[in-house]
Design brief:
Low-confidence stretches: none
Strand order of the largest sheet: 1-2
Mean pLDDT: 92
Strand content: 5-15%
């Protein structure tokens, strides 16, 4: 993977929301953003800023690395 600039990320936020029985509204309120913003994050139309990544990891009780998966 070294030197590979074409790696693709797969968002796991939607999966983590299901696993933790949390809706978009609950995630949005916790992170202080709109429901639309959570939808954009979970559908890969945008990425959360770093402080929000940490908040999501805390909410889902996981590591920041667990929010996205590298697809080969």
């Amino acid at each position: 993977m070294k030197g590979d600039i074409h790696m693709k990320l797969k968002c796991r936020i939607k999966i983590l929301m299901i696993e933790n029985d949390l809706g978009r509204q609950e995630v949005a309120e916790y992170c202080g953003v709109t429901v639309d913003q959570v939808t954009r994050w979970s559908n890969m139309r945008s990425y959360p800023p770093v402080p929000k990544l940490w908040m999501l990891a805390r909410l889902f009780d996981c590591k920041v690395d667990d929010l996205y998966k590298i697809e080969e």
